[in-house]
Specification:
By secondary structure, the protein is of the alpha/beta class. It has four domains: 31 residues; 230 residues, 3-Layer(aba) Sandwich (Rossmann fold); 33 residues; 43 residues, no CATH class. It is 31% helix and 19% strand. An eight-stranded mixed β-sheet has the order 3-16-4-5-15-14-12-9, with helices on one face. Strand 1 and strand 2 form a beta hairpin.
Length: 358
């Protein structure tokens, strides 16, 4: 097969194809994540779509690996999301979030049955807590009663354009003092305390809070009893997409806090490192410059010289026309003498008949 004027064999094409696939797979693995609720996870349980939606306007989207990012942003113009943290924040990190909210920021904390959310809410000064018991609804749901539709929505502007919220194995929120309940389940919701997936005599039908907002300092904390509201597969169910947009509101910056939940993809982490560190950017630039130079010119070749001895100098060997003629006649006996003479003469030009003998 000829490609761009060159003959290419099929085994060569196969090797090139495999290399392209390997490089593509490596790049894909480097920029995507498999972590649940991950901002770079395109699968059903990731939140990549949420990150894309809030970034479709002129907003700035920040994905934080550390809580120090909070103090670098204008709190009054920022909404931050903490989705199902897998580890406790600790006093120092909690202080970063607490200062952010008290300075006027909006912090959306979404969880269900994990143990890290309630300690975080306590650490930032919020009074609301997650109950931790599964909410079910036998009347209003999508695929099953364990995926209820929360249909009791307040007329608060923070949930504008939201008529129902689609949940997925959610719990409920115990509101703190002075909290505002934004969304409740339908009146047919109940807490499945014993986990038998049935309404028992000791379980009560009621409209349970699933989204609660409360003021902390100059800002607010919004507690959502199900982080699945924001995952890719759930955003187009109910009015979940409208809920995301309403909660973000007019914020100029949206921060996704993954400082205590999973890891960012390798290439994304590298990008963040280069953006945050001038030294890392300089070192990377120098490495790329050196690597590019080596790729173009090749590695320098040096000849080791024994200690105490001088390196032998290169000698120049000059071939005259007679020597070239003799060499050509022995190499090409089938050539006519006149042809040999013309070739020898063309070779024996000034400054072109000298070679370095190594």
């Amino acid at each position: 097969m000829r490609v761009a004027g060159r003959t290419v064999r099929y085994p060569q094409l196969l090797v090139v194809g495999l290399l392209v696939l390997l490089v593509g797979a490596g790049l894909w693995a480097g920029v995507t994540s498999a972590d649940a609720f991950g901002a770079y996870n395109p699968a059903w349980d990731g939140s990549q779509d949420a990150r894309t939606i809030v970034g479709e306007t002129d907003r700035t989207v920040v994905v934080a690996q550390e809580t120090g990012k909070y103090e670098m942003l204008d709190a009054n113009e920022t909404t931050a999301f903490v989705l199902s943290p897998t580890s406790d924040y600790g006093p120092a990190a909690e202080a970063d979030l607490r200062n952010f909210v008290r300075d006027g920021g909006t912090l959306v904390v979404a969880g269900d049955f994990g143990g890290a959310v309630n300690p975080l809410l306590s650490g930032i000064g919020a009074g609301s807590r997650l109950d931790g018991t599964t909410l079910r609804d036998e009347q209003h749901y999508t695929e099953s009663p364990a995926m209820p539709l929360a249909t009791n929505v307040s007329d608060d502007s923070r949930v504008a354009d939201v008529d129902e919220l689609a949940l997925n194995y959610a719990t409920v929120v115990d509101p703190g003092t002075g909290s505002t309940v934004l969304v409740r389940s339908s009146p047919y919701g109940y807490l499945d305390a014993n986990g038998n997936e049935a309404l028992d005599d000791n379980e009560t039908l009621a409209s349970y809070p699933v989204v609660v907002a409360e003021s902390v300092g100059e800002g607010q904390v919004v507690v959502v009893s199900d982080p699945s509201v924001f995952i890719n597969t759930m955003l187009d169910r109910g009015d979940n997409r409208a809920f995301l947009s309403s909660i973000v509101g007019e914020s100029e910056t949206v921060l996704f806090d993954y400082s205590h939940a999973g890891q960012l993809p390798p290439l994304v982490r590298l990008t963040h490192l280069l953006a945050d560190s001038a030294l890392a950017l300089l070192v990377t630039g120098l490495l790329l410059l050196v690597g590019g130079t080596i790729a173009v010119r090749g590695l320098p070749v040096s000849v080791p010289v024994p200690w105490g001895r001088e390196s032998p100098s290169l000698t120049a060997v000059t071939l005259d026309e007679a020597s070239i003629t003799d060499l050509l006649e022995r190499r090409h006996p089938e050539w006519e003498h006149e042809r040999v003479r013309r070739v020898a003469k063309s070779i024996n030009r000034p400054s072109e008949n000298t070679v370095n003998d190594e």
